[in-house]
Design brief:
This protein is an alpha/beta fold. The chain folds into 2 domains: about 160 residues, serine acetyltransferase, domain 1 (Orthogonal Bundle), CATH 1.10.3130.10; about 90 residues, UDP N-Acetylglucosamine Acyltransferase, domain 1 (3 Solenoid). About 45% of the residues lie in helices and about 10% in strands. It is built from 10 helices and 14 strands. The strands form 3 sheets. A 5-stranded parallel beta sheet has the order 1-4-7-10-13. Strands 3-6-9-12-14 form a 5-stranded parallel beta sheet. Strands 2-5-8-11 form a 4-stranded parallel beta sheet, with no helix packed on it. Helix 6 packs antiparallel against helix 8 and helix 8 packs antiparallel against helix 9. The longest helix is centred in the N-terminal third of the chain and has 24 residues. Pathway: Amino-acid biosynthesis; L-cysteine biosynthesis; L-cysteine from L-serine: step 1/2. GO terms for molecular function: serine O-acetyltransferase activity.
Length: about 300
């Protein structure tokens, strides 16, 4: 077999691959083993999860993300067929993700595979039952985008070309899976959307209906953020943590509420940074580039100049 990297002149390079491969094996298996529990190799697939989001999007909005030639007679068949295939793939990914949930799995149990498969099927059925509710939330988000952006000419334009809408679709799907006990899958879906849109929404965040992200690039929404109804964010807004609480041993406390609470009808303009477990009161407006670490009452109007003088 020819060398994969032949040189035009002279001998082939000697990379001492035997020694390198052996040292990497020792690092991988012994010295620096980072596999979950030291041995789990069966990981969820980012490619499969991308296909799942595409399939679910097509089932939720078939004429926009599915096929353009659907008719009243064929659309239900298409949705059913798409959901069957997509949920079958999802169940397998949920099964793989369950290997990373909790520390009480007995991998020596001969019935573990059957138990995980049954649990994955139950989780997937419950997720499927929530799809009408997810679609209702997404329609409210669509309407908020159309009403909130004078440049929007139709809901189709928003579905097909707004990165904020793309990110919110992935978030609504990921959040449902997160609540159903599939956090690893939810994080992967969120990261895939982050890579595609530049918008980073943790699936653990709680976001109410009629949510609109305009432009969107650089938006970050942390895990314990709570967002009410009819909230609008612009690009480069950060809803983050001010500090990271630790236990008596100095280890970070996981899941501790550390991100902002935004009440209904809040608007936050481009570049604003809102940190800590603070509350932005109903109907408040936070101006561009504001750095905010304290709660504000309902109806507040916070600008950079006000913050500088405070």
């Amino acid at each position: 077999m020819p060398h994969p990297f032949p040189t035009p002149d002279g001998p082939l390079p000697d990379w001492n691959l035997g020694a390198v491969v052996g040292a990497l094996r020792k690092s991988r298996e012994v010295t620096h083993n980072v596999r979950h529990k030291g041995r789990i190799r069966e990981l969820p697939s980012r490619e499969a999860l991308s296909q799942i989001v595409q399939g679910l999007s097509a089932a939720l909005f078939p004429t926009h993300y599915g096929r353009p030639d659907l008719t009243d007679e064929s659309i239900d068949y298409f949705v059913g067929y798409t959901l069957h295939d997509t949920l079958t793939v999802l169940a397998e990914q949920v099964r793989r993700g369950l290997l990373f949930v909790g520390d009480d799995l007995d991998e020596s149990d001969p019935g573990l595979a059957q138990t995980l498969a049954a649990k994955a099927g139950e989780t997937t059925r419950e997720f499927a039952s929530q799809l009408p509710e997810i679609r209702a939330l997404l329609v409210s988000d669509l309407q908020a985008a159309y009403q909130g952006d004078p440049a929007a000419t139709s809901v189709s334009e928003i579905l097909l070309s707004y990165p904020g809408m793309t990110a919110i679709i992935s978030y609504r799907i990921a959040h449902a899976l997160y609540k159903l006990g599939a956090p690893l899958l939810a994080r992967l879906i969120a990261d895939i959307a982050h890579g595609a849109t530049g918008i980073d929404i943790h699936p653990g965040a709680q976001i109410g209906p009629a949510f609109f992200i305009d432009h969107g690039t650089g938006v970050v929404i942390g895990e314990t953020t709570v967002i009410g109804q009819r909230v609008r964010l612009y690009q480069a807004v950060t809803l983050g943590a001010k500090r990271f609480p630790t236990d008596e041993n100095g280890a970070l406390l996981k899941g501790h509420p550390r991100h902002p609470v935004l009440e209904d009808d809040v608007v936050i303009y481009a570049g604003a940074t809102v940190l800590g477990r603070i509350t932005i009161g109903k109907g408040s407006t936070i101006g561009g580039n504001v750095w905010l670490t304290n709660s504000v009452p309902p109806g507040s109007n916070v600008t950079q100049a006000q913050n500088r003088g405070a």
